[in-house]
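Just wondering, does anyone understand what follows?

——
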Amino acid sequence: MTTLHLPLDRSGGLPLHRQIYDGIRGAILAGALRPGQRIPSTRALALDLAVSRLPVLAAYEQLLHECYLEGRAGSGTYVSQALPDELLQSKPVPDGARPAPRVPPESDYGGLGPFRTSLPALDRFPHVAWARLVARHAQRLPPAHMAYGDPAGLPALRAAIADHLRAARGVRCSAEQVLIVSGSQAALRIAAAAILAPGDAVAVEEPGYPGARAALAAGGARLLPIPVDEGGIDVDALRRAGGARAAYVTPSHQYPLGMSMTAARRLTLLDWARRQGAWVLEDDYDSEYRYVSRPLGALQGMDAHGRVIYVGTFSKVMFPALRVGYLVVPPPLLQDVLRARLAFDLFPPTLYQSALAEFLDGGHFVRHLRRMRGVYQARRAALLDGLARHCGDRLVVHNADAGLHVAVLLPDGFDDTDLVRRMGDRGLTATALSTCYASTVPRCGLLLGFGGSDERRLQDATRMLGELLRAYP
């Protein structure tokens, strides 16, 4: 086993886990580390670098994921034997042409560190069953599934999703109303193109999901931030704002604060939509996981006048790279949405749709959901225990009733974006609550995801967060 020389800049803007990742990857590509060469353990390298083990773990996980490294059970971690020759022969970029180091954005899209929001338990996914289904469908993919497909998606998957939504979410729909898309962002872009003209006003929750705001604004919508309270979006404020052609809401698990919209507020919102001839975009992004009661039914199931467009995704219950989401569209809108879908990207890829349809129909999906509820219950408990033990005097848990993240509030004197940057230097990937506000003075806090980390990592991460909080500023 070799030692690694990895100079670290502790005063710069690049997080430690990224510097460690770049250093090891660069050494592999330059030939300083050879295929099959054993590298230090995460604990040993952390000691050598005088850093916490967490940024080293995050760097190693990314390198393993990208196949630069490979683990051997009971032996250690090695440079991958399967690196392409052209990678190993790549030449260093001349200094004059070298781009400036990329400082990852706050929502580091590849980040797998503790507290990453919206990340499910990838380590507990049924890889063997899924791989078997994908391989079988790839081997027998008929010519019709290799050609241009139905813009609405594979009929078998649409039927399986409709069956699941009727039974599990109380959604009133047929398979014909289900359209397959590449995720909730695509769903919102397509729906907005069908129901809005450029400059039309759309009400959005304040605070709310930044990705939804970006998707709606990209289509030319004018955003109207409407405050939320413990009952959900403030419909009285929505009425006073006037002129909204649609309202985007997360009624089952409000993003980011976590509360659920009350039954009375749901009926009031639906009445507003009916009277105004407006549409409600319901994003049901992680409703399967609720810890204080049974999962709540969808708002769409209460809609007697066909004003709700329902948006769902498999990113939280399967894995984000699957890129499969769906719309449930009221029948009068179907042709308009199909035209918008055709203009977006013609039709969704077929292979994963076929495998996913069998995954649902064969009972794998329901079994996976049942197992994961127990896994997330334990991880949520570990996070809350760690926060109480290590951070209880420095933050307040706002809501932890459902989903895969916990919203916490910070006291006066903290800057949550600065704190997130400091956390990133230690390999912790959180989200600043203030980034979820569009117009009003934001509350200062953190969104701490727990789905993607096991109990031990969460305990370690909360201890590190406590150290950062006590040392602030």
